[in-house]
Amino acid sequence: LNNNKLNQDIIDSESLKDLLHFQHQSIAEFQPFHISSFLNKVTRLRKDLQSINNNPRIFDPLLSRTITTIKEFDAPSLARTAHGIAKISSQTKISVDPSFWKVLEEEAVKVELWEARHMSRILWAFAKVNYNSPELFSSMALKIMSNLDEFNSQDLANTVWA
Fold this sequence. Notes:
By secondary structure, the chain is mainly alpha-helical. Helix content is 70%, strand content 0%. The chain is built from ten helices and no strands. α3 runs parallel beside α6.
């Protein structure tokens, strides 16, 4: 599959079963935007989320692929990926190893340019999974203060909550 076709197939998936099929068949081809699209789609399949509880390691291939490609992630992909994983974790019994969050944290603090919505999403994600990250929150605080006029009410609410 080409990148655009794979991404469209992920977006068009109607069930968790379809998504897991793509994960199984094409994980080696997943680029950062595929990973964030996949996670975003999973969070929208609320009726299927409870079935995940029967297999808490169901996304291990996706998490592994995320780790191996993390250096290729831009700020939006990092934020959407962290947000998706945190949302899935909070709605299921899936617990992601802290080492995964550590790798995300290390990459996130390296990013210089963040849009307001991506800053709020990544901070929300780390707070939602109770991952203590003083370095990330400190580095973001400076960026937030210098870009406060870019935040909409939702971004502000997510950031304050985090």
